[in-house]
Write a structure and sequence with these properties.
The protein has 384 residues and is mainly alpha-helical. It has helices at 30-37, 40-46, 50-57, 82-88, 93-103, 108-115, 119-128, 143-156, 178-184, 190-199, 217-222, 233-251, 253-262, 265-270, 281-293, 297-306, 312-317, 319-353, 357-370, and strands at residues 208-210, 213-215.
């Protein structure tokens, strides 16, 4: 889950909550026991009984997450429903859907919680850790399962503009609506992002925050991480393709507004999605201007690489942007060279001047503390 304090695997910011487990004896209902033991078929059958239906609708903390002595203090006590319990243990879609149909109590925070999960990272951790006995989060969602769960929870959500609560992500570092979370999460397909864009296009322009940097969903999509080089090349290529599809979707803002006027919520989620139009030169220039304003030069570079000018006029129109990128690259090269020269000079001084340098270092530390230093933050890494 998103948390700047506990980076895992290949990118900063997703917290491993595998250790937040409870014992079967802590369960507050038979449904909770089935969920903790991973008895999915038993749980589905149990829901067909009067006791099972009561368990699905009662807000009785079926997993015992909030029992006396529980260490799961990061979860609010309002997350005591059977639906959240099924999401927490990564239950199969069929079981989650059945609980949702019975309880009718899905909340936006349930959707935001699922959007913070990266199933392929969880699967990797399951493969790397030693086999442990249940109760324990013993499975992760498959790609298809994850998409179905997201569609189910989107359908149940009444508002898609609210920011993610603090128990899921750190509000001092992140401010993300559902669309922005879908844009950043590499396991969320571009089709899910398209659904969110068509249902609530106003979210495309909402101000967000990613790792303390003020930004917008377009930049967040470009900043979506890819797996490390240790992953198969086809997996990395698919993640890159999905990321670029998300960027193009968010550039097609006007088209999303048009779809919002035409399609109902059920049509968008259940029907075959329309194909967005190809991006235009105008959209590329708008996106480049936004990226330049936010110092996101890697997105500018990728936009120029991906867009193929159709005429000589279009090629000429991109000239000023290409010039600005070249000038920025030159500034970066000069800055890096100066940093390397300073590092080499400091090493020489410390090696040859010894203790004489310590008062100088202390004075410079004081100067840097008193005089704010200008920082040009960016969140987009090289995309190709």
């Amino acid at each position: 889950m998103i948390s700047p304090a506990a980076p895992i695997n290949y990118h900063r910011g997703f917290e491993d909550e595998d250790n937040l487990t409870v014992q079967v004896s802590d369960a507050n209902s038979l449904l909770g026991t089935h969920l903790l033991e991973g008895d999915w078929e038993e749980a589905i059958s149990h829901l067909d009984t009067p006791e099972g239906e009561r368990g699905a609708t009662a807000k009785n903390d079926p997993l015992g997450l909030f029992n006396v002595g529980s260490k799961n203090v990061t979860l609010p006590k309002t997350k005591n429903s059977a639906l959240f319990a099924s999401l927490y243990v990564r239950a199969p879609f069929q079981l989650i859907e059945k609980i949702c149909d019975i309880s009718k109590d899905a909340e936006l925070s349930d959707l935001l919680y699922v959007l913070s999960v990266i199933p392929h990272e969880e699967q990797q951790r399951l493969q790397e850790t030693q086999q442990r006995k249940i109760p324990y989060r013993s499975r992760s969602w498959t790609t298809d399962e994850y998409t179905l769960i997201l569609k189910l929870l989107i359908k149940e959500s009444t508002s898609l503009l609210e920011k993610c609560p603090s128990w899921i992500i750190n509000p001092s570092a992140f401010a993300l609506n559902p669309l922005a979370m879908a844009a950043y999460n590499p396991d969320v397909s571009s089709s899910i992002l398209q659904i969110l864009c068509m249902l609530e296009p106003k979210a495309i322009d909402m101000d967000c925050k990613l790792f303390t940097v003020p930004t917008i969903p377009l930049i967040i999509a470009a900043a979506s991480p890819i797996p490390p080089a240790s992953f198969p090349i086809d997996v990395r290529d698919e993640v890159k393709r999905n990321r670029w599809e998300k960027v193009k979707l968010l550039m097609n803002k006007d088209w999303c507004y048009e779809q919002y006027k035409v399609f109902s919520s059920s049509d968008v989620i259940d029907a075959t999605l329309p194909t967005p139009p190809a991006i235009t030169l105008y959209q590329v220039k708008i996106a480049c201007d936004e990226a330049k304003k936010r110092k996101e030069w890697e997105l500018v570079r990728e936009l120029l690489k991906q867009y193929k000018p159709k005429t000589e006029e279009e090629l000429l129109a991109l000239g000023p942007i290409q010039t600005a990128l070249a000038q920025q690259d030159q500034k970066t090269t000069i800055k890096l060279r100066k940093q390397e020269e300073k590092r080499s000079r400091d090493e020489w001084l410390h090696r040859n001047m010894g203790l004489v340098m310590y008062p100088v270092d202390a004075l410079m530390d004081l100067v840097h503390a008193l005089i704010p230093q200008r920082q040009d933050y960016s969140v987009v890494s090289p995309m190709s």
